[in-house]
Each structure stands twice: as structure tokens, then as C-alpha cells.
# Entry
Amino acid sequence: MHATEPLTFDPAGAWQASYAPTSHDLWTRTNVGEVFPSVVTPLTFSIIVALGEAVWVAQPDRLKLLPRRLFQDGRPPAAFRAINGRMFYNTGLVHHIFTDVFGLPSWFWMLSLGGPQDASGRYLAKRPFHPTRALRALPKMLTEARRLRDVVAAFERDQASMRAAAADLGREDLGPLSETELIARLARVAKMAEAPEAQLFDGSSAALNAYGILAGLCERWCGDRALANDLVTGLATMSTANATLALWDVVRAAAAHPAALPIIREGPAADVRQRLRHAPEAAPVAAALDDFFTSFGHRCADEFELAVPRWSEDATFIVTTLRTYLDAPAAVDPAALLARQRLRRVAAEREARRRMQPSRLHQVAPYRWFVFRAVLREAQRLLPMRENPKHHFLLFAAELRRTILALARRLAARGMIDAPADAFFLTRDELAAAAGSAERDLPAPGVPLLVAARRALYARYQTWSPPEAIPGSEVEAVERALREQVAEGDAAPSVGFPSYARGPLSDRARDESERPLAPPAVDEPDEATHAPSPIARGSEPGSATSAAPAARAQSVADQTMPDPRDPIVAPRQAGEKHSLRGIAASGGVVTAPARIVLTPEDGASIEPGDVLVAPFTDPGWTPLFTIAAAVVMDLGGLLSHGAIVAREYGIPAVVNTRTATTALRTGQMITVDGGTGAVTWEDDGGGD
# Structure
């Protein structure tokens, strides 16, 4: 093992980036929590920060909406940041721009956000419509609307060429490349990822705004805001939802070629693809499964985290889900569900028009319907922009990961890191420096200490349960509280890094910290020349975050009392009725047994007709949706991934219940009302 000595850097620096704090900052996990559900690794964080700089700071068109008073030394305020290793969204800043700058009412901001998803309402004062501000900001808003339309048009025009470029990258052989060439490739792929990442950011904004306007008109002119959900269902234009269709193509092929069934059902999931390829009678099934992985193999759960293997690397979840599909009734075939939802959408449009024409005047001059129809068509066109650019960005993210793994294996072979997974605990610049040192056979013994310190802090961050909202002035106190907690619980010296990066881990935290970061090999092993490690001691990773304003007297870190509005469930007694309330995300009423699923891998236990109860969902969960009778989530909003996919297939869904995964038990009969946002059940008094 490498010699150790006290480090002169703060391991937490790898999760920090400079930005301009404002008095409006209020940090929440809204929306970003399903994109980055866990602690982000330093390498992923540094790449995301660099991409953000390229598509946000370096492109002034996006900054014209922000008042110059919010800038500091030319730097804009931050929309995202990491706190104790987890990504947060600046809800307070966006609310300020919507209401105080643009003059729009708070309810519109809330709708465009996807509904009330967190505790931000306790900190943000409601704002009414302000005509003077809105009129003053109108030229900027119109200019921004035109820019967003151009972004959407560019994505629709360029998506095929992006897929082709990613396919070309996937055919490149990385084995012959030197370390310097691999670092250059990492930069080249990151540059290619900028366009879809910018389109994801802008497209999401356009989709959120369009849906907010549609929902507002549904409430004002139709008397039913929830009608908007049925007006955007069954579109069949979302790449994420199409993954389920592609997997069902495999099911249909297997039904037509029964020789493939025992191959799929039996043996290790990791071997299924290879065994299908070696069975001539199963060739059509093997081809259908290969088509799935060609189109969707770059996806996975927690897919923005580059340390997580893609489906093409680890097919276990897909094969396990495929086995469940084989036993599912034809009624849950997603093609049938989409056909049903298209009819539902047409019926909802007729209902909306009927409600907007209550009088003879409105029938003769249906001006409302003309306006509404234009808004509706725009929302239907833009809503897929919430998901589709992400699908294309992740094509390049998979190539970033492949390049990182090629470098990581070489560093591990030369003894610079203990395992390839250690590379994800370096920043992008540190990885480049390590690769350069490796190529020149130069020692840099600080690397093992960097990795050890950050791995320990990463594990500590995994144990932290973030509050729903953190005012900008209290971020420093929240981070300090975790450091002090670790310091108090620390008994024994470790490897020479600060005490707050050490401390005993619970079994659960240790399990989380040891999730499968180490990747399987994907290209030929490189020639190994063993040499000491790369980066010089004393280098300060990351740039320091600007100092926050003075903390309030009552710190968020000290707020441990539950909010009275939280849907806390009383102690269980036989026959007692209980309920949770969340956001009504997709209409319909279902009574069925609950199935608590904390990770997609746990989804193997779900049976057709169960209610999927999950903390959140990202696209990696999508294949589970069509076999579920309904979906209930702790987190999420009207335009979170789970809500969008549930509406697409017509699955009743209630999101943002906050406590469903802890209040409910697997096997418990529950009623989910996706129209009202209620989840109810009668407790039998049994234990978990």
C-alpha cells in the first residue's frame, strides 16, 4: 500500500465550483433529484460543470434574461450546484426571475415547474401578476421564445446526425490510442455533447412553459387543470417511452419463436444475449434484442452518473424485466396502451372544446378555441423536448464513460490507482494530469491519497438525508454540520486526511458506497508498465465556492421538526383508514397490492397488476411501468420523468407523496386516484 501523510487539501473541493451567490438563492432537489438521485462522483461533477460553463456562461444569448445586478465579476448566478455531494436546483433564483423580473404570477411559475414538489413555498412569497414588469420584460420574453423555438427546430433537424456521430464514435477502437490521445478524445466527445445538453436545458424550459400555459388555460377556460394531462397523453414521440416498445418487440419475437423462451428464462441473465446468438432457431429474437441495445443500450438508472454501467455493459435489469414481460398479459402491451391513450387524447380535446363553448356567442366566434388549440399543439410538440435531447446527450455520455474506462484501466495496470473505479474520484483535470504522467512514466504519489479521501467523503455524503429546501445563506451551515457530525463520531485515525472525511459507516451506507462503480472491460487491455502515481502533493482540487452570506439564526441544519403539512401516517391499527396526498400526475383509479421498489434492480419482484411504489423514477425505470397497475412516488412533479411516462401509457400516477415508500408496505391493498392525487388504504394492523 502507498505511504500516507496528512493532506493539505480539502477533499470536498472536488464538489465545489465558483459561482455568483445572490440573496434570492434557495436550493432544492426539485427535478434535479431524479436526474442525480445519488451523490455524484468528482469526475462526473467536473465534467458536468465544464459542460455547464460551455453551454451557459460562454453563450451570452442565454444570459440576456438575467439582470446584470445578479452578476459578480462577470460571472452569472448558478442554476445548479452540489451541496454535500448532491446536486441542487436554484428554485429561489428562478422564482425571482419569473415573478420579480418578468412580472409573472407565482402560480404560473409553479405550473411551469411541474407543481409544488418541495418546501420552497415556505420560503418564497407568492407574487401576483405585475403588468408593468411584464410589459417591460415583454421584448426579452418574446426574444427568448423565438430562441427556444429555434433550439427546438435545430434539435428536430440535427437529431439524426447526432445519432450517426455517436455511432461513429462507438466504432472507434480505443486500444491503439495513447494516453494523450485518449484525453484528447475525452475533450472531443465532451465538445460533441454540448449541443444536446444545451438543447436539453432549453427544450426542458420550453416544455415546462408550454405545459404551464396549457394547464393554466385548462383551469381558466375549462374549469379543470387536470384535463391538461389527458391532452398530452399517447403522443408516441418520446424516446424514453419507446424503449418499452422496443423491449416488447423482443417479447413478440419470442412468442413467434418458442425455442428462444427457455434461453431467456433460464441461466445467468448476463449470458442470454450470447446464448440467443448461438441458437439458429432463435435468430429473430437475438436480432430484436440486439436492436434494443443498439437503440437504448446507452441508457440505465442514474444515467447522468458516468460511474454507472450502461445497459449494454450490464444487461441484468433488461433481461430480468424481459422475463417478467413474457408472463405479462397482452393487455399491458405498450402498443395497445398507446392506442388507447390516443383515443383518450382525442376525447379530451373534444371535451375541452365543449367546455369552452357554453354560449351561442362562443359557438359562433370560438376565439377561445383557436387560441387554446394553438397552445395545445405547441405543448404537444414541445413536451417530448423534456426527454428526447437527454436520450441524445446520453449517447455521448456513454462514449465519455468508455474513454474514461480505457484510461482508468491503464492507470490501474501501472499501479497509479488500485482499481479502474478509482478514476471516478479524480476530477477531469486530475485525470488528464495522471494520464500525462503515466505516459511519461513520471511518479505522482498524491493520487492514492486523493482517491482515498474522496471515497471516504463520498461514503459519508451517502449517509446524509438532504432537507427539501436550503436557503443560500444556510448552505455553509448545512455543510459544516455534516463535517462536525463526522468529526464527533470519528474515533480512530485513518489515512491522513481530515477527520470529517472519515468515520465509521453504517452497513447501508457502506453498501451504497460500494455500488457497482467498477466497470467491465470493453476494449482490449493495454500494455502495463508499473510506475508510481501522478498528481503532485498539495494540489487543490476544484475551485472554492464564493462565500455565502451570514447564516440565519435558525439554520436548516437544525430544523428537525416535521412540517405539519407533511403527510405523516399515524400508528397502524387494524381497520383504520389512512391516506397520502400528492400531485395528481395521470388520471385513473386503481385498487391493487403495493410493491415497494427502491431501485430498478428490485423491480424483478414486481408482478403484473402491482402498484409500483418508488422513491422516484428516471428513464432507467421505464421498462417497469407497463406491467404496473399504477405508480406512486415520494418525489416528482407533473413533468418529472415518471409522470410523463405514466401519462403516455395511461397508468394512474400520484407523485410527490413524500413518504409513500415508508408509509406503505409491500402486499398492502391500496387505492390510487391519479385524478385527485390521493392514495388510501385500510390498515390490517400487520407489521412490515
Summary: The chain is about 45% helix and 10% strand. The CA atoms of residues 634 and 658 lie 4 Å apart. The first helix runs from residue 32 to 35. Confidence is low (pLDDT under 50) at residues 1-7, 490-572.
